Amino acid sequence: MNRLQVYNENVTLRDIVTHLNLDVIYEGNLDLKIKIPSIYQIGYELIGFFEVGEELTTYIHIYGRKESRYLARFTPEEREKIFDNYFKYGFPALIITNESIIFPEMIECAKKHNKTVLKSHMRTSATIREAKFFLSKELAQEKMLDGYVCLDVMGIGILITGYEDAKLGVTIELLERGHRLITDNHLIIKRMAENDLEGYNFFDKSTMDSHFFLDNPKDGSKIDVTTLFGIKATRKMKRIDMLIVLEEWDEKKFYDRLGLDEVTEEFLGENIPKLTIPVRKGRNLAIIVETAALNYRLKAMGLNSARYFMKQSQMLIMKNKKKQGERNMNGDKLLSVMQLKRQFNLKVLSGEDRLEETYIKTTSIHRPSLALAGYVENYKDEAYNGVQIFSKAEFKYLDTLPEEMRIKNISNYLQFKLPVLVLTADVEVPSYFLNLVKENNTILCRSSYKKASQVIANFNSFLETYFTPSISVHGVFVELYGFGVLLTGKSGVGKSETALELIHRGHRLIADDLVKFVKDTSGDIMGTAANLPYFMEIRGLGIIDIKTLYGLGAVRINKKLDIVIELKEQEREDVYLTAVDYQTSSTEIIGKDVPKMVLYISSGRNAAAMVEIAVMNLMATKLGHDPEKLYKEGLKRMTEEEREVLGVDGEES
C-alpha cells in the first residue's frame, strides 16, 4: 500500500512561537494551523502595491529593519493607513525581527484585524532561515512504501526492492558486513527540502525495548536485527541517495556494463538514481551493493571510478585547489558571477564580458521593492553587494509609475553597481529597462525558475554554503558507525595511530592533522580536509595515502561532527579512570555545542577499541538506552547476599 500525505496539518503558530522562542506582541489566533512551509519578507505592501496571491494569503510574513526605517519617514496617520490596508489580507502572522521598530499604529491595526504579531530575538536573515528550516521539517511531504528495504551502506542511503528471494539474503549479508538497517517494511519517505529525501522507520524506535526486525516472506517469521547484530546495525532514519532493483537474471536482456547512462526513479518529486542488478547463482550481491555505494560517492565527486584511478587523481587535486574560492585584499571570500551562472545555468542578457571580474560578496538576496519606489537609503547605508531578483511583480509595479519617475527610480537604483540582476523565467524584459541596464553596464541574467521564491530558496542555499563561517582544528576526523568523531590531544599522544587502527577496523577517514569545519544551512557542523585529502602522517612511516592503501570505502569527503574525543596520557598507572560524563560535557565549535569526552591512554588500553565503545555508547543514549541507569536498577533488585557474592558495593545503588 502506498499512502501519500501531502502535508502534516498539526503545526500551529503556537508551535512556531515555542520553537523559535518568539515574544507574543498581539496574540490573534495562535492555534491557527500552518499549511505550507513558506516565509515572505514584506516590501511592496508598505508602498501600497498589493499583488494578491499565496504570499498575501498563506505565507508567514517577516518585517525587518529596512522596512521599519522606511516607515519611520511617515506620520502616524500615514502609517495607520498603510497598516490598515496591509492587515486586511489573510496571511497567518507577522514576525518582527529584533532590530526593527514597532510602531503603535501597527499594534492597533493588528488588534483591529485580529492579526497575530510576534517578535523575534534574531536578525532578519536568521529569523527567516530558522523559521523556514523548522516549517520545512515539520510540514514535509511524506509517503509510505511497502516492499522496500532501506539501508545505510557506507554512509549512502540505499533503497532495495525487486526479487524477493534475493532481497532478504542480501540485507542480512550487508548487516553482517557492518551496514545498518532503517526498515524493510512500512518505510516512510519525507521530502525535507529540494534534493533531500529521507527515509524513516514507521515504528517508534526511541524507547529502550524497541527492536528492529526483518520479515521472512517464506514462513512469516521475524528476524530480530537488534538482538543478532546489536544497535550499531540499526538507525531510525537516513537520507535516500539511490535505488537498487534486484531482478532475476534474463539471458536475453542487455544489462548496463559501463555505468554511463543515468537512470532515475521519481519519489515525491525527487529523482533518485536507479540501478538494476541482475541476480543469479555465484554473484555476491552484498559486494555489488557496496561497490554501487562507493561508485555513487565517487560520482558525487564528479568522477567515474575507472577514469578516477587511472587518469584523474592529479587533476582532482588541482580542481579542488581552484574551487577553494577567490579572496580580496582583506581576506574576504568572493564569488564571481561566472560561478553563479555555471551553478544555476543562467542565461546572460547583458554584461557577459564582466562575468569573471564581477564578484558577489554576501549571502544577501534582495527583491528591490523599496528601491524601485525611490527609497534607496538602505543601499547607501548597507552597501549591498548581493544578488538582485526581479519577477513579474517588480515590472507590474514599475508599470504603475509615471514614465519620468520610473526612469529616475531605476537609474538611481542601478547607480550602486550591483553585481547581478536575475530575472525569473516568465519575465518579459521591457525595452526601457534593458536599455538602462546596458547603459549602466550591469549584468542581467535569466533563471530557469518561474517563481521568485524558488530562485531565492535555491540561491540562498548555495550562497549560505559558499560563504559559511569556517574554522580549522588540529586533530583527526573519522566516521564511526555513521557518527563524525574528532580525535584531539597534544602532539605525540597517538591520534593518527588510533585513527589508522580504526580504518583497519572498517571505519573511515575524513581528514588528518588539520580539519576544516563549516556550519551548513541547517546548523550542522561539517568537517573536511583543510588541505590535500586522505593523507596521514604516521611516525616511522611518513606520509601515507589512505585512499590508495585502503580504497574509497576507507575515506569520505565530508561528515557532520557528532562528538569530540580528547586523547590524554594517564599520568598515574595506579589510578583507574572509568567515569566519563560526555552527555553534559561539551565544547563549542562555530557557535554550536558539541558533545566531548576524554579517554586516557596507557599501556594495556586499546585506544581504537575504547573510541568504538564510546561512540556505540553515544548511539545507545540517542536511541533511549541508559546503561548507567540499568546498572543501578539491577543493583537495587539484588539481595545483600548476591551483592556480597559478586563483590558489589550496595551503596552504589
Automatic annotation (TrEMBL):
Domain HPr kinase/phosphorylase C-terminal: 138-312, 467-629
Catalytic activity: [HPr protein]-O-phospho-L-serine + phosphate + H(+) = [HPr protein]-L-serine + diphosphate; [HPr protein]-L-serine + ATP = [HPr protein]-O-phospho-L-serine + ADP + H(+)
Keyword list, A-Z: ATP-binding, Kinase, Multifunctional enzyme, Nucleotide-binding, Serine/threonine-protein kinase, Transferase
GO BP term, pick one: regulation of carbohydrate metabolic process
SUPFAM superfamilies according to UniProt: HprK N-terminal domain-like (SSF75138), PEP carboxykinase-like (SSF53795)
Molecular-function GO term, any one: phosphorelay sensor kinase activity
A Pfam short name: Hpr_kinase_C
Listed name of the protein: HPr(Ser) kinase/phosphatase
Organism: Fusobacterium hominis
Gene that this sequence comes from: hprK
